[in-house]
Design brief:
The complex is a heterodimer of chains A (122) and B (367). Chain A has helices at 22-25, 28-31, 73-118; strands spanning 2-7, 10-14, 34-37, 46-48, 53-55. With 122 residues, chain A is α+β, with helices and mostly antiparallel strands. The radius of gyration of chain A is 30 Å and the shape is elongated. Chain B has 367 residues and is mainly β. Chain B is 7% helix and 35% strand. Chain B has helices at residues 47-50, 53-59, 67-80; strands spanning 15-20, 26-32, 82-88, 92-97, 108-115, 123-127, 132-135, 142-149, 154-159, 167-170, 177-179, 187-189, 192-194, 204-205, 211-212, 225-229, 232-234, 249-251, 256-258, 285-289, 295-296, 300-303, 306-309, 312-316, 319-323, 334-339, 345-348, 356-362. Classes of the chains: A alpha+beta (122), B mainly beta (367). Chain A binds chain B through residues 5, 12-16, 18-19, 24-30, 43, 59-60, 62-66, 68-71, 75-76, 79, 82, 104, 107-108, 115, 118, 120, and chain B through 32, 34, 45, 68, 71, 91-93, 131, 156, 158, 160-161, 182-186, 188, 190-193, 195-196, 199, 204-208, 212, 214, 229-232, 247-250, 254-258, 260.
């Protein structure tokens, strides 16, 4: 037997052995979501509390193929604006990164000069 | 930091220097020593004065760290006012006894970050040109809180494991395969919990006998998908991290526009309030058209003094392999593989990373 956590009567996770007993390692609220289950039960299995039975997940019916749609002018403008916005953010991030590196370099230079002076440099 | 250890030093402390001509040729060695009769000796520039082990421990860095690492750590403490006391980053159950940090037996405040295990990535394979897609796993969820604790009290901690990723090795076969990863498991500190991230969803078989799946995985940082569909293909070139969202993208020659859903992302969970740095990364993904594509997904980012990685997927030739990330709770990368004439290939999605429980204290950590 194993312990599983149910969410809407579907197995969200199998509780690892190292975290058993549930009542010791987790809080009351979490432990209340956990139940004992047969060994073969795995994630996404469903539980029927009325009949106390478990069932394997059912493969969903395939959806129709998504059809590509021609973008409207507004769609394309939005996509371009989004791309431009990302470019700006990247440029700002790069600038900040360079600025930060420059500050670090300056601090290191000063430390090196001090060190040089300490060992007798002029 | 390590002190310089000279092998050319006299008993009186004089150190060997080289004297060179303008062409860089060594002319002779000379031994030099300060003889300036100082009125004040001053402090020596060495590890004992600059960065002793006690200071390294106080600011939470390794004792062999360099001064630059110390500066970064100090900046981080100054940024949010917290420093890391201890952390648990491997799946397991632990008991944490509150240390008497300040030696007075009095209660003090801690900050706790609880991160659930990451979801495993999915693989999908199909013949070249067919519709196909797969999702990376989402990162685990997270919760953050502060709490007053009393020295010598104990708390139960669970670090959730990352969900497994899918894998397949095919030899001279043309199997269409779609295998989902598994969800990460819940992490907890006392009665506070953070659930694991969802796995990358398995692809479905459509009426044209091709795999597809256009829905992302849910987690603290959700994952979107990699796919190959007719004129367009999408590959996640960066690991989504830190509350990144995705709404749509245009492809190919720009005449088509797709807008698919990304898995749920909760941006307010994706910045660690105790460090101020982004956290939680979903799995990236890669599309490999046999012999044509080579894609690298690189989720590197800096978190203060450390470099951490999201799951990476590297594909090329007959392989598409994802590796588990180092970031706690990050999702596993997905792989999508198109086989062509040769039907020998190895496709492996990555497992999600284990979650974590990280405990912080205000200011530095007393030694």
């Amino acid at each position: 037997m194993k312990y599983v956590r149910l969410s809407d009567n579907t197995v969200a996770e199998v509780i690892p052995d190292y975290a058993l007993p549930v009542s010791k390692w987790y809080g009351e609220k979490f432990a209340a979501q956990c139940v004992e289950a047969p060994d073969e039960v795995d994630q996404q299995w469903t539980y029927d509390p009325d009949t106390d039975t478990w069932a394997e997940p059912v493969e969903p019916e395939p959806d129709p193929d998504p059809q590509p749609v021609k973008p409207t002018l507004a769609d394309r403008v939005t996509a371009l604006e989004s791309a431009l916005s990302e470019t700006d953010e990247t440029a700002i991030a790069l600038y900040e990164s360079l600025e930060s590196q420059q500050e670090t370099n300056e601090a290191q230079d000063e430390a090196l000069i001090e060190l040089y002076e300490l060992v007798g440099g002029e | 930091m390590k002190d310089r250890v000279s092998s050319k030093i006299l008993d009186n402390g004089a150190i060997r220097y080289g004297v060179y001509d303008e062409n860089g040729n060594l002319e002779k060695y000379q031994y030099l020593k300060l003889e300036d009769e100082p009125v004040e000796e001053g402090s020596a520039l060495n590890k004992a004065n600059l960065l002793p082990d006690s200071v390294c421990n106080y600011i939470g860095i390794d004792t062999d760290s360099e001064p630059a690492d110390a500066l970064k750590a100090i900046a981080q403490i100054g940024r949010c006012g917290w420093s890391m006391l201890t952390q648990y980053r491997e799946a397991g159950a632990y008991e944490w006894e509150v240390p008497d940090l300040y030696g007075d037996g009095k209660p003090y405040e801690i900050g706790v970050a609880v991160i659930g295990g990451g979801g495993g990535g999915t693989i999908a394979t199909n013949e070249k040109g067919a519709n196909i897609s797969a999702n990376g796993g989402a990162s685990g969820y997270a919760c953050y809180f502060t709490k007053a604790v009393i020295p010598s009290d104990t708390y139960n901690i669970v670090v959730g494991s990352g969900g497994i990723g899918s894998e397949t090795k095919i030899v001279n076969s043309s199997s269409k395969i779609s295998k989902s990863g598994k969800a990460g498991s819940t992490s907890s500190f006392d009665d506070a919990t953070a659930n694991g991230g969802a796995p990358g969803g398995s692809a479905s078989l459509n009426s044209d006998n091709a795999w597809y799946n256009y829905y992302g995985a849910y987690g603290g940082q959700g994952a979107d998908y990699a796919s190959y569909a007719e004129l367009a293909y999408r590959k996640r070139k960066t690991t989504p991290i830190g509350g990144e969202t995705f709404f749509g993208v245009s492809y190919g020659d720009g005449t088509y526009f797709y807008s698919y859903s990304m898995g749920e992302t909760l941006p307010y969970l994706c910045t660690n309030p105790f460090t101020g740095f982004p956290i939680l990364a979903a799995g990236g993904s890669a599309v490999n058209q046999y012999g044509q594509e080579s894609v690298e997904i690189n989720g590197e980012y800096s978190s203060g003094s450390n470099i951490e990685y999201g799951s990476q997927t590297v594909s090329g030739g007959a392989e598409a392999i994802a590796t588990v990330g180092t970031l706690p709770g990050c999702g596993g990368g997905a792989t999508v593989f198109h086989y062509a004439d040769s039907k020998n290939y190895h496709a492996a999605a990555a497992p999600g990373a284990d979650g974590a429980v990280i405990i912080y204290v205000k200011g530095g950590v007393p030694t």
